[in-house]
Amino acid sequence: MTVEALNLFLDNFANWDSLVRVWPLLWQGLQLTVLLSVVTVPIAVAAGLLIAVAYSFHHKWINLALLVWIDLFRSFPVLVLLILIFYGLPFLGLKLPSFAACVLALVLNHSGYYGEIFRAGIEAVPFGQREAALALGLRPLQAIFLVILPQALSRVVAPLASNSLELVKTTSIASLVALPELLRSARVAQEQTYNPTPLTAAAILFFVLLFPFARWVARLERDMIMRQR
Amino acid sequence: MTPLVDNFFNAQILAQYWPSILGGFGVTVEVALLTILMGIGIGLVLAIVRAMRWRAADIAIVVFVDVFRTLPQLVIIVFLYFALPYADIQLSPFAATTLALGAVLAAFATEIFWAAIQAVPQGQWDAARSLGLGFFQVLFLVVLPQAVRIAVPLLANRAIAITKGTALGTAVSLPELLGRAQSAMAIAANPSPLTLAAALYLVFFVPLVVASRWLERSAGPAPAHRR
After folding, report:
1. Contact A229 B72 (CB under 8 A)
2. Predicted-assembly ipTM surpassing the 0.95 threshold
3. Which of A163, B64, B137, B152 has its CA 20 to 30 A from that of A214?
């Protein structure tokens, strides 16, 4: 690559002036992305946990309904869910603001993923554990929360972490319902500057934000695979 | 009940937009299949290259995997479509979506295959080498068949999760299922096309999700209470 070509490339993709100009916009977007993640992840985890605990009582019809819920929401592309909620529900007179619509779509979708993870973790704890806990006089809910879940959790750390990372990454779809999170802000900034630097900056921000977490998740998953041999 | 039926299951509107939406479904399936082919194919090749422990390639592959595993799919699609033209690379919506999703799946698949290859005990290598097999014979005849078994359930899950990203193509106006449904909804001022699209997504993905559950169960350890 010649020097001029390199300069042209840098002018386009790493233009310092336009970065300085659009930085406030990106910074706001970044904050909204973090806020969306911080709100969504705990609610989705709680929803998944609720599903898994309900499943653990092995009631035939309830379990069938829960499995349908899990597989249904795992099968929906989350963006389709979001569009249905944001653009479809107003026809029934229910207009959600874009932030609420995003939280709802992400939580419904990931309640399925988290539900399946916790469910598989609980099922992997030997049944004798529950029998023993009940025989010792614990109530069913005590048995679940004090005996079964702590053992289940230690088995599902890797998929939990991996799913949470995916959830945070997925918050970027909020840009498609005009919520000015990081990606949306970058697109808006790009249209103001006629220059892809804001997009490059957003990509770098996402990377810096998520990379340590992604590395950690990768190590957990690798350990899980290695244990299978 | 009537507003619900009129708005979400309007037969007249469904009949009118059915062909266009079915065409969108075709595009979705196309992108999905290409993504899986590209992702798994490249992932396997890169894992094999890593097994050769060639240092320069190792570094390049690790960087590739880290970048595409970490960035959100939509960010990559938008970047390919809206930023690359400034470098005189103009991708079609179809190419941008497929390349982005394929690269993401390739990153995850590389990681899964490579971990699975390493999970095959070293003794297998030693034994096969001492029987006179060459490096590639050991890799392809002894190690990979075992590694693929370990990798399949994880790969299936990832492949399904990433293929669902085809809907993200709407962001770059790829005329796939969701995009077609959305424009039909805008023209008809009625969300029935969206219901239809949602149903078609379920038709495509529910069997895959159920199959992956079955795969996981038959490959992994049995649930404890049935042991």
Report:
1. no
2. no
3. B152
